[in-house]
Amino acid sequence: MGPPKTELWLNKVLEPFDIKFANDSAKYFVGGWLQSMENPLHFLTHGLRDDQNEVGMVVGASLVATGAARPVIVGKYGYLDAGDMREGTRGYLGNMDYDMGEPLGQIVIAAEQDYGKGKVLVFGDTSAFANGIITNTGEFCNRVFTWLASETSKPNGKAKESANGPTHLAAGSGKLLSYTKTLAAILLLVGAIACFRLSGGYAGVVAGALVVGLVVAAHSTNNAVPLGPGQDGSVRLAYVDNYHMPKVSKEGWRDDGLMALHLNLMRNGFYTQNLKKFDLETLQGADLVVTVAPSAPFTRKDVEAVERYLEGGGTMILTASHEDLDAIQKLLDAFDLRIPFTPLGRFKIPVAAAAGKFVPFWRVWPIEYLGEPTLPRTYLTTKWYGELPVKEDYDTSQILIPYEPTNEKGKTGQSYDLAVRLNVGKGKLILIADSGFWMNKNLEIEKMNEIRDPAMKKNYMDSIYFMQWMLQTHVPQTKESN
Hints:
Layout: E1 7-8, H1 10-13, E2 19-21, E3 24-28, E4 37-38, E5 63-65, E6 70-75, E7 78-82, E8 107-115, E9 118-123, H2 131-148, E10 161-162, E11 165-166, E12 176-179, E13 182-190, E14 193-198, E15 201-208, E16 210-219, E17 223-226, E18 236-241, H3 259-267, E19 270-275, H4 280-283, E20 288-292, H5 300-311, E21 315-319, H6 325-334, E22 337-338, E23 345-352, E24 357-364, E25 368-369, E26 398-403, E27 406-407, E28 410-411, E29 416-424, E30 427-432, H7 440-443, H8 454-474
């Protein structure tokens, strides 16, 4: 007798359509399909870059698209790793290595099909919609739901288009789109793990799968669909500056990555996205902008945008050091700030001795404020750490973290300022002179539950609590408008 007959049960959902899941894993040769995708001309993928995986595909099942179905995302440099029904303990995965005979290239990862008055969009991988990845795929996910909710014309069954693309969709505009009809939708998200039906029952399978199906019915009213988070204060938007080419790893959980920064922003109530365009119009939509270790210089135009953004009520947090001066010099000059060449190293500062709380620094430098008047110093005390931090008066610019080093004889008599907050108009600029301050290595690592060293775990927890305090006390619940 041969092997047991298998059937991918999610294909039951797709029976009316010409798209099916395959019993395999679509695997890349270069991590994250970087520079390895081939996207057919489509509204969903037009202009998106595969060198940064802006569609967020990782490893999932491949798709078989025939008949009326059309590929949307194709893996050009990868292979299909066959599932192994003998490996039940590993979810029936194959060996996740390329073996002779396994198909190479032209792998359909996402496909779509018109159906009646609606559309069906199928992904073999859920990754683009996960919290940790959507920070870089926001534009793509935005397009997905906007396109699914757009009107479909008949009889050709394709979305209305002009020679320059869809007439009713403004990709990347960030503005409201008005439709002549409200589109009522039934949205099906099957997101975790596809299952095979075995002769003896059901078992979990190889690859994650996502089915996004939309059945659309028309009603006679006008509807505006926003691209991006709401602007009514219901969602706080935080941008993490990718425009100025931060000196960080693009792999989110590497030591020098920023995955922990994004996730901690989410935990504190922010919708977070990588910032890929730096101008006043874009900044004004955000409650918070965070720039980490930039390598591309702030231009005069960039600095003017920051000034106006802050004056209008925005908050910007810059974690950068003397090593980043080539990029931040114009920005520092605009606000009378200086980071002298005095490396202080890696250490932690007790901020609430009675509570045993510290602020850990990775490699910090001092800050000098050259303006007038001299900034007052705020010594963080037990007020800072209770069950939640106590709200204080933040209407004046301040030195947030002063540092008085000691040696075996006691205080050295020197004093340095490591974090500064400047009130600019209705907004705030916060400078922390440590490029690695909010990188994973100093904030949080992926496998926190596997840390066995209590001191190491406490360092990370102190960093997390400090970030919570800063966000809760220095970023308004809603940004003031001009």
